[in-house]
Amino acid sequence: MKITIENLQLRYGKFTAIDDMNVEIGDRESVVLLGKSGCGKTSTMRCIAGLEQPTAGRITIGDTVVFDAEAGINLPPNKRNVGMVFQSYAVWPHMTVFENVAYSLKIQGIGKTEIKQRVHEVLELVGLEDFASRGASMLSGGQMQRVALARSLVMRPDVLLLDEPLSNLDARLRDRLRIELREIQLQLGLTTVYVTHDQQEAFALADRIALMQDGIIVQMEDPTSMYLEPASASIAHFLGVSNVHPVNPAADGMWTISGSNLVLASATEVRQTGEDLRACFRSEDLLLSRDGVPGANSWRGTVKVSSFQGSSIRYAVDVGAGVTELDVLAPLGARERFQPGEEVWVTINAGAVQVLPQSPAPQELRAAVAA
Ligand SMILES: Nc1ncnc2c1ncn2[C@@H]1O[C@H](COP(=O)(O)OP(=O)(O)OP(=O)(O)O)[C@@H](O)[C@H]1O
Ligand SMILES: [Mg+2]
After folding, report:
1. Where are the beta strands (DSSP E) in 203-273?
2. Considering 202, 228, 254, which residue would you say is the last residue of a domain?
3. Which residue from 86, 215, 221, 355 has the least number of CB within 10 angstroms?
């Protein structure tokens, strides 16, 4: 079911946690709210669920206006048909898995036969069909989180809100549950809003990612577009681009990295001009070699650190007399290996260099989000 958020604002006293948010989430769409700690992700979820009263704006789920500050509408959480799953395992330890999942159906006065059928259906969906009679306190973290998910799903919500549901789990389990969640979401055609600060998780789960900074959605796009074309250097950095350096325009459309004489060519379009421009390039796009020629995108440097990472080796390379250090990721199978102290050449293709404003102007932001 569609969710429309218009001019949403949430203030805690003088502090603005959500500032004039406008978003439309499509029916059956999976939107991931991504952003660093404190940017307003949970606040947004709580407003949709009805657990927090916004200061201004309107929220519509399907055709129902669930909140409208001006019209004085504010439906309570249980009238919104929204399911929520949180980071902490909110299961009742003294009940069995079956009882946990059946609880809300019982409260609604649904008959025993139907309860049995619906509970078994969702337990199968989340892979807990063999655990129905197990006490909920005798489950692993991953299993408890599946119970919490089953408990939301059994209510057949129009919208499912998930707030960092996997962050208490170990990395491997998180990877697996992430894929299962996406399968369930697609299978049931659920509209979901998922909160995380992990970009890998966002990429894996989202039809569209809404990237939040300081209570504002600064970019909203499908994961591939966001990865390839971040709207600002701060977004690029958040999405894992480790080389971000202030630049100044130089002759012939080139750039120099501020505070150095390193010349940089970028073959990508500079969409905005401004004072505060940064060159952004990914560590895996840099190449190291023993031989080279000085010029644009080809710099002499010294290896400071070399660290083995399994499938790759990460190098810190000083290219600017102690001022500019580059993060380079070389595949393990790379022809040459380098040791700390070695002199090297670092090169990068001009197509892999983006010059972006540190943070775009608000009107540019709005246009980017609306597009
Ligand atoms: N009840 C409250 N009173 C005052 N300020 C609050 C309250 N709840 C949240 N905030 C503030 O609002 C901002 C947004 O909080 P929110 O919980 O939405 O962040 P978040 O993006 O979910 O962060 P995290 O990733 O750490 O969970 C934070 O700066 C927080 O300190
Ligand atoms: Mg939060």
Report:
1. 208-213, 216-221, 243-249, 255-257, 263-264
2. 228
3. 86
